[in-house]
Structures are given as C-alpha cells and as structure tokens.
Write a structure and sequence with these properties.
This protein has 179 residues and is an all-alpha fold. The chain has helices at residues 3-12, 15-27, 29-46, 53-64, 77-99, 135-176, and strands at 124-125, 128-129. Helices cover 66% and strands 2% of the residues. Strands 1-2 form a two-stranded antiparallel sheet. The two termini are 50 Å apart.
Length: 179
Amino acid sequence: MNCDDFLPSMETGGLVRRMRARRHAARCRRCAAVYAAFVSATQQWASPEPLSPCARHLWEQAAGELAVGPFRWRRWMPLAAGLAAACVVLLAVAMVLRKGFIAPPPREVAPRPSEVPAAPIPQRLAGDVIEQLDPAEELSRLAAAARQLDAQLQRLRHEAERIDAQRQLAVTLDRFGRW
C-alpha cells in the first residue's frame, strides 16, 4: 500500500483493501491527517443547513402536490402503434424482395461494353454527328482529369488549413495582445 492508493482504498475498496489502508494510516501520519480532514469535510457536507422560511414554504407546497398522475392511454397511441406495425411489415416485405427470396420479374440483359461491336456507325441524324469513342482513350482521359482534380483538392485543402491557422493566430493575438 502506498500513499497514492490510500484514500481510494479506504473509501471504495473492499474489506481487505480497507484493512490494508487502515494499517497504512497507523504507520503514516500524513495519510492519517488526510483521512481525518476527509472525514470532517464529508461530515460537514452531510449535515444540511436549516431551510429558510421561504424554502420551507416551497417544500411544503411541493409535498402537497401529486408528482405524476396514473398512466393513461392517449387517443393517438393505438394509431401510432398500428402505424409502427405497418412500417415494420413494409420494411420486412422490402427486405425480402431485395434479398431475392421472392424472385423479381426477369430483366433484359444489356450487352457489356466489351461485347459491343467496335465498328464506327456512319449515320447522320438531322445534322448531328454520332461519334464512337475509344473506351481506353476515354478512360485514360478521365483518369488524368481525376488526378488533376485530386491535386487541386490537395492544394485547396492545404490553403484552407493555412487560412484557418492564420485566423486562429489572429484570434489568439487579439485575445492575449501583441508582444
């Protein structure tokens, strides 16, 4: 037992820990003084001050009133229970349909992009030109644009952090004054 564990052991410890704490207090004058001060403070807090006449009057009024009346079913409670049950049933039906326990109607399967013929379509519709794009080129162009946007996002994030730090520094300097 050391001095740091004395007071917690004395107050919240079990039978053995309290016995060890009492034995420690018998040998350590500082811990015995701390415990005596602690006991006197708790006794002072345990004895309440007498109530003033105004507070006594308020206490008596509050004691005469009924705190809570008996529980009564409101008119809307059965309706709310019915709506809650309907929502649970609808949620269960939606989950069953989504999980595929009940087979949904068959869907038409669209061809995959790799299955689309690569031959260009030379058609003109009312002056518009239909142009077939190479998927690899388009994907690389989109990837480059995404990398560029990511770099811009990083720059903007660093700029926002710098501005926030400047604002915090200005607030701190305004609060504590300049040196």
